[in-house]
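Hi, here's the filled form for the chain we discussed.

Project: internal
Contact: R.S.
Residues: 312
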Amino acid sequence: MDNQTFQYSKLLVEGLQVTSQSTLPTFILLLMVYAFIMVSNIGMMVLISADKCLHQPMYVLFCNLTLNDILGTTDFVPPVLRNLLIEPSERYITFVECVIQAYFAHLNGTASHTVIMIMAFDRYVAICNPLRYPAIMTSNMVVKLSVAAWAVAAVLVGILIGLSVRLSHCRSVIQGSICDNPSLFKLSCENTVVNNVYGLTFTVVLFTSSVVCVALTYLRIALICFKSKNKATNSKAIKTCSTHLTVYIIMLISGSVTILLHRFPVYAETRKLAAIILHVIPPALNPIIYGVQSKEIRQKILKLFRNQINAK
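And the returned structure, exactly as it came back:
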């Protein structure tokens, strides 16, 4: 059979390379973290949706982030857990399933940045134009920003994955914990210059736009804090900004490492670890950093707990 016109219907996924002694602890740890991510993010979305007092632009936009975290973690963790319980030689996935998995993996990564950009825009308007904030951040504007964030991510990722799907295969092993775009086009022996150029341009533009938006927002906050004489407000703002930036930097570094190390097969296990950090740490921290740290949400959660205790 001519490999230049062939596409495998089934692929073998490398998955995590762990010892037999480490398999069960790794499985339990990932399962517990996954459960926490699901409960905290779904709980945050339900809380914001159910309470009209929280139907503010900042919290509605935050729901996009929680939705994206649920999507990305569900795309990543269950397949990894499944493969941990299967012999390495039996970790098969169909090509169609692999493409879908890769699409949602990159949709999650891209939307993480586009959603954070619209959240940064919201904070920038609130800080730079506080008097005009209600007029600018209307319900219609929030919907437009949310749709734009997801639509841009969906189209760009669709093109990215489409360029890889068109290629023929000469290999059948997915070199990663799950399917992603680099592992898809690595199945081919064809010329992948177009894939590389588009992928690199896409990544640079996305990361640069994200960093610039976040940097402008937090620099503006820093300038206002510098000019302000209210120490209590400054301390709160610095604490909030530092935690937001910490989660953002973790996401940025782990995402960059995952992409870069695809070019260095010798660091395959380091790349897989970076992918786990990318799909687990930010989704676990976001409900705490962006949600619980908010006074309004924290008060709502405490009120719910008190009501539950009083009911008993």
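Let me know if anything looks off before we file it.
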